[in-house]
Amino acid sequence: MEDDFDFPAAGGMNDEMMDDTPYDAPGSLKVGEEKEIGNQGLKKKLLKEGDSWETPENGDEVEVHYTGTLLDGTQFDSSRDRGTPFKFTLGQGQVIKGWDQGIKTMKKGENALFTIPAELAYGASGSPPTIPPNATLQFDVQLLSWSSVKDICKDGGIFKKIVKKGEKWENPRDLDEVLVNYEVRLEDGTLVAKADGVEFTVQDGHFCPALSKAVKTMKKAEKAVLTVKPQYGFGEKGKQASGNETGVPANATLQITLELVSWNIVSNITTDKKVVKKILKEGEGYERPNEGAIVQLTLIGKLQDGTIFFKADPFDFKTDEEQVIDGLDRAVLTMKKGEVAVLTIAPEYAFGSSESKQELAVVPPNSTVIYEVELISFVKEKESWDMITPEKIEAAGKKKEEGNVLFKAGKYEKASKRYEKGVKYIDYDTSFSEEEKKQAKVLKVSCNLNNAACKLKMKEYKEAEKLCTKVLEMESRNVKALYRRAQAYINVGDLDLAEIDIKKALEIEPENRDVKMEYKVLKEKMREYNKKDAKFYGNMFAKLSGADSKKKMAPKEVAPMTIDSKA
After folding, report:
1. Is 407 a known active-site residue?
2. Catalytic activity annotated for this protein (predicted)?
């Protein structure tokens, strides 16, 4: 009997018989309970509960013990009797459909009895001499373990089999620096390369393209075996032997054992990628400093050649107050308590084009600097929801004054943030008294108008328009709001809307010099637009007229009429 059955295979199974049938999981079964899986007659009875909640998926390599019997109890096969567990790849048609559908519902360590109708087993042919035609079978199956096997590029180029599960849930990303161990072999087992403790940036890759593709799917401490097709290995050219590494023939498939030991998270702090943070040690919890927080650091500043120009332990400063260089200020806002990081800061966010004499050395012009930072502690600036109403109004007034100072210094982006924060303190005023609402309204109007002036300077005209509109919703006859919105309209080419605002402003304040000057600018813009329009249409009509005269001068080409002689 063992010669006939060393596994429950469906003989002659082709691609059309491979199982991709959707099924309804039997849900949470109790021991002794039986339920149907899907709608083809497959039944599952739970004999022993499994561990955890995970179940295998199609493509995973599963390991089971089983005993197969007919409905009358006649045993036809048993891996238990052989003393060797049976391994196969789930969902690939290597076993009968009832197995593919049933085993994917099991948990590790689970024991279940599957009753499998002939349609999901050996059908009308049976499997002579032990399984008759149209036989319903029963399998007592225990799922011992499984290894996850994934087609990680979805093109069959790299299959990954996890042999040791990793920790947590995060995966490395393109900018991150990973530390790996790996061993590379050809299909015949020939060792190509072996290395421990190799560091590389994911997006830069190492050895062959498969490594960077694979590590992006791995967790910390995970170990996997990769089957790598030539397009992710060394392709048609192969690889020549060098040093301790054996050559790789053209179009060779590789077997790579890869372990992701750890990685350092690397992120761009600024959108232009000129302030980069590499985390050496994760911080605690989720809280980070906010703008205006008092932070305490351990700080070492270096040039790219390693020269230390600054060292302090501890070092305290208030964020968003220009007490340190911009790159450091921005980066600290992304850190958690206890986090240790290395910051690489380009000159634009460091000391710029000027030489800067620091505590321990001079920073030359246009220097990229590196800071080693540990965030020891921080005290956040009080948020609006932690304040009572008088505190909110006071804080809004303070942010407005800070914004005014920054605006006068030409620091429009920072000033804009102050005005925005000032408004946030008092935006929701439903609980304010009538007097407090009046005070809040004055501050809202002032902050929004000043912020609109910032946005005009920053050439963010749509934002300036929105801010002025907010003011006009509160004060419809506010001349500054009309004037600044008109400026925004002019800069985006909405001249008709600009004229409406300017005329309204002049109705309210006929002698306002700034508005009168802006009206002159508007009229000049309108004249320019009218000239351009006249020239455009003039040229267009001239071209049309020229085309018409050419048509009159050209001899007509008459298409020959074909006459059906049979008509």
Report:
1. no
2. [protein]-peptidylproline (omega=180) = [protein]-peptidylproline (omega=0)
Instruction: Please tell me which residue in 86, 88, 114, 122 is annotated as part of the active site.
Output: 122
237-259 pLDDT per residue, tens: 999 998 888 999 999 999 999 99
pLDDT in tens, 306-364: 999 999 999 999 999 889 999 999 999 999 999 999 999 999 999 999 999 999 999 99
Is the pLDDT at 566 greater than 50? The verdict is: no
Instruction: Please tell me the least confidently modeled range out of 46-60, 291-305, 472-486, 536-550.
Output: 536-550
What is the C-alpha to C-alpha distance for residues 417 and 352, in angstroms, rounded to an integer? 23
Distance CA 291, CA 530 (A): 49
3-class DSSP state of 448: helix
76 carries an active-site annotation:
yes
pLDDT category at 3 given cuts 50, 70, 90 is: very low
As a whole number of Å, the CA-based R_g of the chain is 37
| Active-site residue, selected from the candidate residues 86, 88, 114, 139 | 139
Contact 164, 171 (CB under 8 A): no
Question: Using an 8 Å Cβ cutoff, are 207 and 250 in contact?
Answer: no
Q: Active site residue: 19, 37, 60, 76, which one?
A: 76
**CA torsion angle for 516, 520, 525, 531 (degrees, to 10)?**
150
Which of the following is catalytic: 19, 60, 77, 140? 77
How far apart (Å, rounded) are the C-alpha atoms in residues 485 and 506?
Answer: 14
48 membership: H or E segment, kind and range: strand 42-48
Give me the pLDDT at residue 244, please: 84
* 96 is annotated as an active-site residue: yes
C-alpha 445: how far from chain center:
38
Q: What does 199-260 look like in DSSP terms, one character per residue?
A: EEETTT-BSBHHHHHHHTT--BT-EEEEEE-GGGTTTTT-B--BTTBPPB-TT--EEEEEEE
Decide if 139 is catalytic.
Answer: yes
Task: Please confirm, yes or no, whether 316 is among the known catalytic residues.
Answer: no
- Residues contacting 450, CB < 8 A, separation 6+: 400, 403, 404, 407, 415, 419
Q: What is the distance between the alpha carbons of residues 468 and 450, in angstroms, rounded to a whole number?
A: 10
What is the C-alpha separation between 197 and 264, in angstroms, rounded?
A: 14
Q: What is the pLDDT of residue 458?
A: 95
- Residue 66 appears among annotated catalytic residues: yes
Q: Residue 44: CB partners within 8 Å, gap ≥ 6?
A: 26, 29, 34, 35, 36, 37, 102, 105, 112, 113, 114, 115
| pLDDT tens for each residue of 355-407 | 999 999 999 999 999 999 999 999 998 888 888 999 999 999 999 999 999 99
CA 297 to mean position of chain CA atoms: 30
